[in-house]
């Protein structure tokens, strides 16, 4: 059953705070956008974000339709009545693409394409397309291709997809009695396995880099946040590294590392990572594992927040959700409230009940409050380091090797009974992660 009438905004109209729906590029697909919501009181920022995502992908936006549903239709998601409304708009503006701001099952996507006689893209497919355009490094391109193929593998039901051109063959590649569909699926599976092997090598290289930084006693501070919150602008402000910055979603995909001198606290490694977004496709979370590990293995997270955003609390919640997905939710964090120049609010630091910095108010674009941010980072890192001496028996050489691999041992000596005396210095978050894998270390610490 269809719910309330759809709201329709056509090209160059701007109502109720929605972005103007004017064309963005001259070479994109004419598109009808369908925003599906389940409640009437949803913030208009969700529609604005959807429009910006489509623009970032290069779509020529002709119409934006806002469809409210209390129950989703198993066959089309939105129901046959809404599909007829969309078809009228598609025919009127001669659109070749419909983008639905919701995840579609493979069968729903196929049914909509049949009924609308045009290409249909869901939210996951749209985000994957943007990632494919934005990836610049070799690693980023591998990760995006892996995510795209994993997404495609659930949708391979049609005939000739010509994946043999990507897979390195065609004639001579098909097994006996295989249909074209079976061949395509096999080629996709082979390519996915190949990409995973390559990314595992990249992951190993990243791990070696982290061990080197730990041995050099350099803590890693990672920037996280909702896309377009100003992470890369802040990264440039802190490092002057010239990282690509644009007022668009997912301007930065590849993790970038730079050494930064903190005035009050020595050197750190600053990591700028991919921006998060609501309903980030799980294929991307899985494919970007090596990049996101820079977040999970960090000593401190700077959660950059667009302080003047209407949907600020919802976006903070989405970032927290992704951090939990990648097992980074226990890493200490500092909230960085960015864009205070748009709020006319002075810079400042908020402290919690224990006197620890909890939130810093800054403007990365204007350089306001950067000195306070450095101060807060220094204070957070100073209290998040474990320093102690461990005593290991000769039979516990495996633990000793593990601690060396983590770069945790500052000095080593032996007592008269042949026991190892290890001076340890390690970020507290890394120590807690080690304890999770090596519970015996807790007993070693207690006896030491």
Describe the overall structure.
The protein has four domains: 7-121, GTPase HflX, N-terminal domain (Rossmann fold); 133-201, no CATH class; 207-382, P-loop containing nucleotide triphosphate hydrolases (Rossmann fold, 3-Layer(aba) Sandwich), CATH 3.40.50; 385-447. The chain is built from 15 helices and 15 strands. The protein has helices spanning 45-56, 80-93, 106-116, 123-134, 138-153, 164-167, 180-215, 231-239, 282-287, 289-296, 312-325, 370-382, 397-405, 428-437, 440-447; strands at 7-10, 30-37, 60-68, 97-100, 119-121, 220-225, 256-262, 266-272, 300-306, 333-338, 348-351, 357-361, 385-392, 409-414, 420-427.
A few lines on this structure:
By secondary structure, the chain is an alpha/beta fold. The chain has helices at 45-56, 80-93, 106-116, 123-134, 138-153, 164-167, 180-215, 231-239, 282-287, 289-296, 312-325, 370-382, 397-405, 428-437, 440-447; strands at 7-10, 30-37, 60-68, 97-100, 119-121, 220-225, 256-262, 266-272, 300-306, 333-338, 348-351, 357-361, 385-392, 409-414, 420-427. It starts with 6 loop residues before the first strand and ends with a helix.
Number of strands: 15
- How are helices and strands ordered from N to C? EEHEHEHEHHHHEHEEHHEHEEEHEHEEHH
CATH fold assignment of the largest domain: Rossmann fold
Most strands sheet:
7 strands, mixed
CATH evolutionary superfamily of the largest domain: P-loop containing nucleotide triphosphate hydrolases
| Uncertain residue ranges | 14-26, 158-175
Q: What would you say the CATH architecture of the largest domain is?
A: 3-Layer(aba) Sandwich
First-last Cα distance: 68 Å
Alpha-carbon Rg, integer: 25 Å
Q: What class would the helix/strand composition place it in?
A: alpha/beta
- Roughly what fraction of the amino acids lie in strands? 15-25%
Number of domains in the coordinates?
4
Query: So how many helices?
Result: 15
Please bin the fraction of helical residues. 40-55%
CATH class of the largest domain: Alpha Beta
Average pLDDT, rounded to a whole number, is 80
* Biggest sheet: strand arrangement: 7-8-6-9-10-12-11
């Amino acid at each position: 059953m269809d719910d309330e009438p759809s709201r329709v905004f056509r090209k160059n109209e701007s109502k109720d705070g929605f972005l103007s729906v004017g064309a963005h590029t001259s070479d994109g697909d004419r598109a009808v956008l369908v925003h599906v919501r389940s409640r009437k009181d949803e913030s208009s920022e969700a529609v604005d974000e959807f429009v910006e995502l489509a623009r970032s992908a290069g779509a020529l936006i002709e119409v934006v339709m806002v469809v409210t549903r209390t129950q989703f239709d198993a066959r089309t998601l939105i129901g046959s009545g809404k599909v007829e409304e969309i078809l009228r708009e598609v025919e009127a503006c001669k659109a070749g693409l419909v983008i639905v701001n919701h995840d579609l099952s493979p069968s729903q996507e196929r049914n909509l394409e049949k009924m609308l006689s045009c290409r249909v893209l869901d939210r996951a497919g749209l985000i994957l397309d943007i990632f494919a355009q934005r990836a610049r490094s070799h690693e980023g391109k591998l990760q995006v291709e892996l995510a795209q193929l994993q997404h495609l593998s659930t949708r391979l039901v049609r005939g000739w997809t010509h994946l043999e051109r990507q897979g390195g063959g065609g004639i001579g590649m098909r097994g006996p009695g295989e249909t074209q569909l079976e061949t395509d699926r096999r080629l996709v599976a082979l390519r996915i396995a190949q990409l995973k092997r390559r990314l595992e090598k990249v992951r190993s290289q990243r791990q070696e880099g982290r061990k080197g930084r730990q041995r050099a006693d350099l803590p890693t501070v990672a920037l996280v946040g909702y896309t377009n919150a100003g992470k890369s602008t802040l990264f440039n402000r802190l490092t002057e590294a010239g990282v690509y910055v644009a007022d668009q979603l997912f301007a930065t995909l590849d993790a970038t590392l730079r050494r930064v001198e903190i005035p009050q606290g020595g050197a750190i490694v600053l990591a700028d990572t991919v921006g998060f977004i609501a309903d980030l496709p799980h294929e991307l979370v899985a494919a970007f594992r090596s990049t996101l590990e820079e977040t999970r293995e960090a000593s401190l997270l700077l959660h950059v927040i667009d302080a003047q955003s209407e949907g600020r609390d919802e976006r903070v919640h989405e970032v927290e959700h992704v951090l939990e997905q990648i097992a980074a939710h226990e890493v200490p964090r500092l909230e960085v409230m960015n864009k205070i120049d748009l709020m006319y609010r002075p810079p400042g630091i908020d402290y919690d009940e224990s006197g620890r910095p909890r939130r810093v108010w800054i403007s990365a674009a204007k350089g306001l409050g950067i000195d306070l941010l450095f101060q807060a980072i220094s204070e957070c890192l100073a209290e998040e380091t474990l320093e102690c001496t461990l005593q290991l028996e000769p039979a516990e050489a495996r633990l000793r090797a593990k601690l060396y691999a983590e770069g945790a041992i500052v000095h080593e000596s032996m007592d008269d009974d042949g026991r190892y005396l290890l001076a340890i210095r390690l970020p507290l978050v890394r120590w807690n992660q080690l304890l999770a894998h090596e519970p015996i270390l807790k007993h070693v610490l207690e006896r030491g």
